[in-house]
Amino acid sequence: MADEEIEIDTDDLERRMQGAMNSLKSELASLRTGRASSSMLDPVTVEAYGQRVPVNQVGTINVPEPRMLTVNVWDKSLVGKVEKAIRESGLGINPQLNGTIIMLPIPELNEERRRELGKVAAQYAESARVAIRNVRRDGMDQIKKAKAQGMSEDDQKLWEEEVQALTDRFIKAVDQALESKQTEIMQV
């Protein structure tokens, strides 16, 4: 039929799957595991200067010890707002004021809370798997369209195998990230 080679853009598929993986990594990083991490405050936003901004744009976040975070707020008038935003964020952290520095002691996680966090991590991983499978489906649809335009069956099989291999690689990476995070969560 058609003499020219019909190409499927696997680079685009890989880029989109990598986007799902990056999103998963940032969601997992925001989960509290009993150890302090500055990324725990990434989802917290503060009403400052007439708009909502992330905490890291109104102060410096430090991890002085394994179970303590500090936020050194640059503008004294925002200290109360930052404290309130952290308190209401649902992180389960009780801020303590010390001038312009807000100290955030990270409490020890109990067994029940660890299991809940494990379930949340599993939900994040499942969302990433779904996103990767959706990208796979788009790739398979591209292959079907190319077949309708005259792609040979051999080429169709090769492209399908390549898209499936890409999908399998990313799903395996999601599973490894989840397993690693769940091990970290359950560690006492």
TrEMBL record:
<comment type="function">
    <text>Responsible for the release of ribosomes from messenger RNA at the termination of protein biosynthesis. May increase the efficiency of translation by recycling ribosomes from one round of translation to another.</text>
</comment>
<keyword id="KW-0963">Cytoplasm</keyword>
<feature type="domain" description="Ribosome recycling factor">
    <location>
        <begin position="24"/>
        <end position="186"/>
    </location>
</feature>
<comment type="similarity">
    <text>Belongs to the RRF family.</text>
</comment>
<dbReference type="GO" id="GO:0002184">
    <property type="term" value="P:cytoplasmic translational termination"/>
</dbReference>
<dbReference type="InterPro" id="IPR023584">
    <property type="entry name" value="Ribosome_recyc_fac_dom"/>
</dbReference>
<dbReference type="InterPro" id="IPR002661">
    <property type="entry name" value="Ribosome_recyc_fac"/>
</dbReference>
<dbReference type="GO" id="GO:0043023">
    <property type="term" value="F:ribosomal large subunit binding"/>
</dbReference>
<protein>
    <recommendedName>
        <fullName>Ribosome-recycling factor</fullName>
    </recommendedName>
</protein>
<dbReference type="InterPro" id="IPR036191">
    <property type="entry name" value="RRF_sf"/>
</dbReference>
<keyword id="KW-0648">Protein biosynthesis</keyword>
<dbReference type="GO" id="GO:0005829">
    <property type="term" value="C:cytosol"/>
</dbReference>
<dbReference type="Pfam" id="PF01765">
    <property type="entry name" value="RRF"/>
</dbReference>
